Structures are given as structure tokens and as C-alpha cells.
Known about the structure:
This protein folds into two domains: 2-139 and 271-370, no CATH class; 156-236, no CATH class. Helices cover 62% and strands 15% of the residues. It has helices spanning 2-40, 46-82, 85-91, 96-139, 254-265, 271-292, 294-309, 314-340, 346-370, and strands spanning 157-165, 168-176, 184-195, 202-214, 222-234. Helix 1 (2-40) packs parallel to helix 4, helix 2 packs across helix 8 (314-340) and helix 4 (96-139) crosses helix 7. The longest helix has 44 residues, at 96-139. 29% of the residues are buried.
Amino acid sequence: MRILRNYVLKELFSPLAAALAVFTFVLLIGNIFKLADLMINKGVHIFDIMKLFFYLTPYILSYTIPMALLTATMICFSRLASDNEVIAMKASGISLYKIGLPVITVAFIISLASVYLNNTVLPASHYASYKLIKSVALKNPTACLEPGVFIKAFKGYIVRLDRIEGNKLEGVLIYHLQDNGPARTIIAEGGEFILNQGSGAITLRLSNGSVDEPNPDDPSVFYKLTFKTYDITLNTEKGISLDNIEKKPKSMTIKELKEDIAALKSSGKSPEYIKTNINERLTEIHRKISMAFSSFVFVLVALPLAINTKRREKSVGFAISLIVLVLYYFMLFGGMALALRNIIPPIAGVWAANIVYLIIGLVLTSCIIER
């Protein structure tokens, strides 16, 4: 049995390494172009770009590891089945369970390691990247802006820019949202960002423009005021100091999420607010674990599919893997969306895809054994 185990694992690890490299490269390449744009066109320092790339890697791996294991299993066992090696093994009295046990064991170990990745490494990298992005925004606010797009990054303001060149802005349109009454509209020919190093707040200094100011007594009436220079202080409530950045659910470990849920229950806020936020955190807890065990259920489905397909061509294995992946993530993200909208419980929405694939894998395996 040791010889069989080593042989099957040897056939698995070669396509596994290749698939992991291909999938990781494909998912990284799109982000590489974005990071390169930040460095070339936005002036972000290369060391910050390298850090962002490093922090992005765990997130990519959380998807590519299960994808690579699924594809490698399809390729490995399709090849064994097409060369009639599986039939020879079964004729020698070796059951399908024993043939697939080494791969199933590897998948289970990878799933356990992925729990650590999703629960410890990924939240830490997500939080570090979030802080780094804020740090970049402190040093170079225009790096986080895109011309021709309505930007809602600043509290109480919606900003649109025609052109950005360095720290200079052209064609500025700003909607200043009011708690009571219509928004103020500010239009300026140009502007620039000025950073207050002490408070971490950002001043947007506009030039040559006008403000449509609503009449306090009659909000339907506006006064048009023109200006040569006009200063707007953005993020005045907290600035964007790195000392007050709160963790989002994706940046929390399971332990921190549970502590946050306990704090929400005793917060005294409205029941609807508490339920919505607790559901969001419960969904994130289950997502970390269920996505980790996607490797395990992928292998359970891929084993009987590959043996039944009996096609040596790697393209067939990739095609079947793609179908399996699309259906899985459609069910996973669809279930998460329903859970976040309080339509179904988080445990049901997040684990539905894994349960469906587990049942399919067991049924397909049983059908092959009975033949």
C-alpha cells in the first residue's frame, strides 16, 4: 500500500504545483497592473507597492489552493483511468476508497491548514493592507482617486474630478451632503490637497469656482457664490490617522468576531441594527471555515468524476474543474448574500455549497463502486 500511496501522490503533486502556479499568476496579474498604475501614474513608493503585493498573496491563495487541488485531482485520476490503471488496481483487490485515500487525506490536511490561513494569516494581511492604503492616502491623497468617477471616500462629500496630475486637480465637482436639507454643490476649475501632518486631516484647496448655497429659510432657493480660493477640510471627524483605524469583519479572527458579537448584544442599539451586524459577523465566521474545507469537498467530487470521464487530455480536466468551481462559488456567494440580507441563517447560507458537494461526491463514489 505504501508503493500505491507514493505513486498516487507523485501523480498528484506535479499537476497540483502547476495548477497552483497558473491560478495564482492569473489572479495576481490583474492586481499587478493596478499596483503598477499606482507606482507609475500616482507616485506611490515602490516599497509600498511591494508591501501591498505581499499582503494580497494570502487572499489569492485562499482561492487558488482549493482550485489547484480540484484541477490536479481531475488531471491525475483522469490519466490513471484513461490508462486503465484504476481498473488494474481494482482487479488486484484494491478498492476505490484505498486508491483515493491518499488524496483525500492530503485534501483534509490542506483544509486544516487553510483554516489557519483564513482565520489568522488572512485577517492580519487584510488589516495591514488597509492600514497601508490609509498611510498612502495620508502621504499622497490623489493615489486613491480616479478621474471621471464619483468618489465617496470622504465623509459627507461626493467628489468628481476631470483630471489629476500629481497633487493638482482639474474640473472639480463636489456635493456637500447636509443632515437637513439639500446638498451644496461646489464647482471649481482646479484644486490641490494639503495635508495637516499634526491632525491627519486633509484640506482640499479649490480655486476659481462657485458654490450653490441653499437658503436656510427656504431650501428650494439657492444662492450662487463665487470664489477665488476655497478650503474644505475632509475627514474632520477622525481624520485618517492610523491610530484610530477600526477592524472590519474581514480583518478579524474568529475569536475577535465572537467578542464583537458579544459586545453588540449588550450595546443597547436597535434590534434590527444588532441582528444585521451579528449576521454579518456570523457569516464571516462560517465563511472562514467553509472555504477552508472547500478543498476537501472538491476532491470528493473530482475523484469519481475523473475516473468516470477517463479522458487523458488536460483540457478536459480544466473544463470540468471550471464548471465545478463556478457552480460552487455561485452557491457560496449566493448563500452569503441571502444570509447578509437576513433571509436565511448564516450557517445555512455559507455551508450549503459544501453540503451539496459532499452529498454529490458520496453519491458519485457509491455509484462507481457498485458498477
